[in-house]
Amino acid sequence: MAVYLDYNASTPLCAEARTAMSAFLAESSHMSLCGNPSSSHGYGTAAAGVVDSARASVAAMLGVPDARDSIVFTSGGTEANNWAIKGLLPHLTASGKTHVVTSNVEHPAVEVVLASLEAAGALTVTRVAVDAHGCVSADAVDAALRPETGLVTLMLANNEIGSLNPLQAIAELCAARGIIVHTDASQAVGKIPVDVSSLGVDLLTVAGHKLYAPKGIGALYIAPQLGPLLEPLMHGAGHERGRRAGTEATLLLAGLGAAAQAVVDHLEDRAAHMAATRDMLWTTLVTELEAVELVRNSPASGLPNTLSVSFPDVLASDLLEAVRDEVAASAGAACHAGEVTISRVIAAIGVPDKWARGTLRLSTGLYLTEDEAAAAGRALAHGYRALQA
Ligand SMILES: Cc1ncc(COP(=O)(O)O)c(C=O)c1O
Known about the structure:
Strand order of the largest sheet: 2-8-7-6-5-3-4
Bound molecules: pyridoxal-5'-phosphate
CATH superfamily of the domain at 3-9 and 267-388: Aspartate Aminotransferase, domain 1
Strand content: 15-25%
CATH topology of the domain at 3-9 and 267-388: Aspartate Aminotransferase, domain 1
Structural class: alpha/beta
Order of helices and strands: EHHHEHEHEHEHEHEEHHEEHEEEEHHEH
CATH architecture of the domain at 3-9 and 267-388: Alpha-Beta Complex
Shape: globular
Radius of gyration: 22 Å
Helix content: 40-55%
């Protein structure tokens, strides 16, 4: 198998999540955990126990004191982002605060939601430009605020280059003006400490499959004062205290709860491992390619696991194809019908075209060894040389 360098796209289950889900699937739990968490009999309360325990672990991971009120489960990061923005729309409209500030490098799960509401005339949106390191400054956000600004939504960590935004400073200046702050923390949680009280944000998105939990599960943190202002996205029965209808995904929650608890227990060691493998990858690339001028897009202060590298005079998809059997990673540029499209993020930080077309996102994680990182670096260098020849 190729070395997996695409942990920002999705992670495997961690051992803790696998154990919890295996126990759930075991024959001995076949009936005992089959209940609907909303049922009042013993089967229901056993299933509700799985949901409550997952909620407590997610709350602990985010430094949230009151899990019951503040953590609501969703189908993942996309739903949580949709809900944060669309759920606030009635409040923003009623208060005449329909201007939203965001950045020009948000994930489509924020950008496309805003663009669709903008096109429908429901919101006006200012997209603050990031700097050369992919970050939005608090001053730039401050300058974009208007009297009718009701919401600031900014990612905590960027999925392509791993840059981090100063959410704490931004939340402070928004709090002083009564502006709601949402952060898409899908890529940050599980890689860096994320504590909602020190960040001071009102809404925060969690995506399970970026932190070694299964795909199809996530959460939205909702600050207590914001609860009454947020309309449900999913209407139906009274699940999740009336805030998100649909029977809770108990098996997936068993995995998310265990994965969140593992983040609480091992974050520091994990981050050190991610950084060591990322650094091994980079060192190998620059050593192997000697005089070739590689551009490292990921800021030194960014996520510990993310290395965005631009190779000159090559197309990212050609390079990935050349190393297909040895390395699995993501391209920062795509080619369709002969037309090359540079990713919005790589374009926004101003990488010159000669390099931008050859941008790869290499993201490391728990199950990558330093030896594998070095082997992947050598394979990429070899593949690049072969394409140049
Ligand atoms: C920054 C960011 N936000 C949101 C998402 C969407 O999350 P999910 O796949 O759980 O819907 C992703 C996934 O790639 C992401 O990287």
